[in-house]
Design goal:
Layout lengths: L3 E9 L3 H19 L2 E6 L4 H7 L5 H8 L3 E6 L14 H11 L4 E7 L12 H4 L3 E7 L9 E6 L3 E6 L5 H16 L4 E6 L5 H13 L7 E6 H10 L6 E4 L1 H14 L7 E5 L5 E5 L16 H13 L4 H16 L17 H11 L3
Parallel strand pairs: 1-2, 1-3, 3-12, 5-10, 8-9, 8-10
Antiparallel strand pairs: 4-5, 4-11, 6-7, 11-12
Helix pairs in contact: 1-10, 1-12, 6-7, 8-9, 10-11, 11-12
Length: 360
């Protein structure tokens, strides 16, 4: 009898419920084709949770996640909650769930589909061969450091965000970057700002100390501002990029746009074991929520990542990825990746086409 994998499903806000609904259909199709068994438990998270419970991460939702083998997340946030105090902002829920579940790294692949080169703002010849992964540290840095405001007599209110990293945090994310590179093209770009920041100098020293453990990996140190420029100038030269929290947040979104749409890219947040949280890179897109026009591909590809990284269901994961490529090669597009917007299809139609294309 097939092992039952428990998946916590957190649709979230905005277009989150729409794209997650298509991913759930994919799970059902995989059950039918491959014999895998999934048990889904739904929870509220983000803005909708604030409205219903006063907290972006209710204890009941956290309990569902801790009882699961993996988490599938849609998207959180929106202008409705932008002016809330820090404790009742959707983004606080995201930081909290990463910390509570021990998720210290975010894996974001950026792969160019040949048939979508025209959707990118970069020239096709610049994009040729681009296939990279950004490995972002998730639980340290200025996002988690002490934050406060103080009054000064001369300049009025002053705000402080503290950026803190320790050796253990840097070591575990660097090891992951090296290990991922070993399984790919054996090139690792470690991104920092060591010419200015003390945390970056510790980062670089630590990465250099670990490098001899991975003699087969070519290590490059690159300053974050230069990396941002090179991602636009020579994206195909990158294999794996490893970096701290804020730099990774910015660079992974830039890498996502190389593909033509942030709606195309999956991500995984991982800890020490096989448990992971999987979500599309895009946000909640409240301006198009409820219109049925959002792109479900990133969420569907997040399921494929889940199968590969948490469940060891490589065949099922690859079948999903092939189905997405087949549908795109056939010319089907949602509005965000369509050159001719009049020919764009909706969320459900795209999901149905991909589900129909999944096969063993």
């Amino acid at each position: 009898m097939a092992e039952v994998k428990k998946i916590a499903v957190l649709p979230g806000d905005g277009i989150g419920p729409e794209v997650v609904a298509e991913a759930e259909k994919v799970l059902k199709k995989v059950e039918e084709l491959f014999g895998h068994k999934f048990e889904l438990a739904h929870g509220i998270f983000g803005g909708i949770a604030i409205d219903q419970t006063g907290s972006p991460l209710p204890q009941a939702t956290l309990d569902i996640c801790k009882d699961a083998d993996a988490v599938l997340l849609g998207a959180v946030g929106g202008p409705k909650w932008d002016n809330n105090p820090k404790e009742t902002r959707p983004e606080t829920g995201l930081l909290g769930i990463r910390k509570e579940l021990g998720l210290f790294s975010n894996i974001r692949p950026a792969v160019i589909f040949d048939c979508l080169k025209e959707a990118s703002t970069l020239k096709p010849e610049v994009l040729e061969g681009t296939d990279l992964i950004v490995v972002r540290e998730l639980t340290g840095g200025s996002y988690f450091g002490e934050k406060f405001r103080r009054e000064t007599a001369e300049n009025g209110t002053e705000a402080v965000d503290t950026c803190v990293y320790n050796v253990k945090e840097i070591e575990r994310i660097a090891h992951q970057g090296f290990q991922i590179a070993q399984k790919r093209r054996k090139k690792l770009a470690s991104v920092d700002k060591a010419n200015v920041m003390e945390t970056s100098r510790l980062w670089r020293e630590t990465v250099n100390r670990l490098a001899p453990q991975y003699p087969d990996v070519e290590l490059e140190h690159i300053l974050v501002d230069n990396c941002a420029m090179q991602l636009l100038r020579r994206p195909s030269s990158f294999d794996v990029i490893v970096t701290e929290n804020m730099f990774g947040d910015i660079l992974s979104d830039e890498a996502a746009m190389l593909t033509g749409s942030i709606g195309m890219l999956a991500s995984a947040s991982l800890g020490e074991g096989s448990f992971g949280l999987y979500e599309p890179v895009h946000g909640s897109a409240p301006d198009i929520a409820g219109q049925g026009i959002s792109n479900p591909i990133a969420t569907i590809l997040s399921v494929a990542l889940m199968f590969k990284l948490s469940f060891n269901y490589a065949e099922a994961g690859e079948s999903i990825e092939r189905a997405v490529k087949e549908v795109l090669d056939a010319g089907h597009r949602t509005g965000d990746i369509a050159v001719d917007k009049s020919q764009a299809i909706g969320t459900t139609a795209m999901g149905d086409l991909i589900i129909a294309a999944i096969r063993k």
